[in-house]
């Protein structure tokens, strides 16, 4: 099975991804690291503890960076995920447990040293924790088995600007460090996550299949959150219906079923300033441009970029 550190800003689709991973027999989440993004980092940590504990898991949670590496922080998008990140839950039960003493970056480095070559990182929020971990341990890319990011876009329009995807836009400097670090890296971006739309009716069907009984708190919590998220999508993208994008869940789908994706390898860099800030720029020409700018040198590390997905198989797998 895959030993995974899940780096996340829960977040409704983060919660979907977490529950997908917990239910999947081949995925073993050995730790959760939290980041700002959909919510503030203390809220992200509270949500990670809440979601795992109500589902019956005592997975360690390490709190991550509260601010982007260099960019001025933005305001969490309460209108998308709710002010609490989980669609404004009407109430919460008390749960036990607290965050680890180690920071997220320290936790990642410690685990990588303890299990060299064994850890997969699935990162689905802004990438401050990976940025900080790379600064703490420059050899990290050699210690980590693979990194899968929900990040960026190549052909599909962005979701915070015409060219930028939210996780990259929130902390472009960390993202660029991650894309140039030289690990076994896969980008699962809007090019594929916008192809996997989950209708409310599909969710109702998922609940029927679930291992928990219908009134289980984990299930009702997720349903409440997804309903709020789908209300937002209905307003923002009425053509989708009452539905939502799968985003973060697709990073885990890639982990267990990479054959459902078409990918291309190429150098990816992030635009750090101006109108295009947060854009993921991919060299799709294999380093053949002879007058390439500095930063596009042919020997730089490449990223495996997901460009297409088998939507039907993907939905079937999740179900
Ligand atoms: C990404 O941004 C967040 O709002 C989602 O949780 C996902 O990780 C999609 O652009
Ligand atoms: Ca996320």
UniProtKB/TrEMBL annotation:
Pfam families on file: IU_nuc_hydro
Chain ranges of the Inosine/uridine-preferring nucleoside hydrolase domain: 4-314
InterPro entries named in the record: Inosine/uridine_hydrolase_dom (IPR001910), IUNH (IPR023186), Ribo_hydro-like (IPR036452)
Molecular function per GO: hydrolase activity
Keywords: Glycosidase, Hydrolase
Designated name of the protein: Nucleoside hydrolase
Annotated source species: Undibacterium danionis
Lineage of the species this protein comes from: Bacteria, Pseudomonadati, Pseudomonadota, Betaproteobacteria, Burkholderiales
